[in-house]
Amino acid sequence: MDAINMRKPEDEAITDRIRAALEEDPNILYPAEIAVSYRPGTVTLRGTVSSLQQRHAAVETAKRSATHAVVEDELWVDFQDRWEDDETRGRVLQALMSNPAVPADRIDVHVADGWLTLKGEVKHQRDSDAAFAAASGVPEVGGVTNEIKVVTAGLDG
C-alpha cells in the first residue's frame, strides 16, 4: 500500500474541507493552483497565488477550516497577473490617502514589477504599521518592503 492510500479518512476529510473552502472564497482567483496537504496537527499550503491579499486569504481560509491545526504557508506570489506599476502605485497612494491612520503626506511609494517599497519618515510605529497594512490590502500588490523610518524627534505633527 502506498503513502496516498494509507491516509486516514479523517485526514482526507480535512483536506477536502479546506479545498472546498478555498473554492468558495471569492478572494482567491485560482484555487486549483493551491495544493493542500494535511498531517495530524499541520496543514501545508503550496502553489501559486497572484497577490499578497490572495495569499493571506488562503491562509486564513485554511485556518478557519482546520481550527486545531497549524497552517504552513509555502505559497508563492506570481507577478504574472499584476497590473501595470503606475496603476498599482496610484491605487496604493489612494489607499494611503483614504486611511485616516496613515500620514500619507510623509510616505512615498515606489513600485517595480508589482513589488512596493514604502519610504518616508513618520512619528510613530503605528503610522508605519498602518501604511503597511493599507498598502498590503491593495489587490494588485505582489509584496511590500517597508522602509519607513520612525523618527520621534524633529517631526512636526
Itemize the secondary structure elements and their pairings.
Elements: H1 9-24, E1 34-39, E2 42-49, H2 52-65, E3 70-77, H3 85-98, E4 107-112, E5 115-122, H4 125-136, E6 143-150
Parallel strand pairs: 2-3, 5-6
Antiparallel strand pairs: 1-2, 4-5
Label this structure with key terms.
157 residues, alpha/beta, Histidine-containing Protein, Chain: A, 2 domains, 3-stranded mixed β-sheet, 6 strands, elongated, disordered N terminus
Tell me about this structure:
There is one protein chain. This protein has 157 residues and is of the alpha/beta class. It has 4 helices and 6 strands; from the N terminus they run H-E-E-H-E-H-E-E-H-E. The protein has a 3-stranded mixed sheet, covered by helices on one side. Strands 4-5-6 form a 3-stranded mixed sheet. The N terminus is likely disordered.
CATH class of the largest domain: Alpha Beta
CATH architecture assignment of the largest domain: 2-Layer Sandwich
Distance between the termini: 68 Å
Task: Sketch the topology as an H/E string, one letter per element.
Answer: HEEHEHEEHE
Q: Helical amount among residues, as a percent range? A: 25-40%
Largest sheet: 3 strands, mixed
- Which secondary-structure class do the elements indicate? alpha/beta
Count of alpha and pi helical runs: 4
**Record field, number of beta strands:** 6
Query: Which value, in Å, is the CA radius of gyration?
Result: 19 Å
CATH topology of the largest domain: Histidine-containing Protein, Chain: A
Strand order of the largest sheet: 1-2-3
Beta-strand residue percentage: 25-35%
Which shape, going by the Cα principal axes? elongated
Mean pLDDT across residues: 86
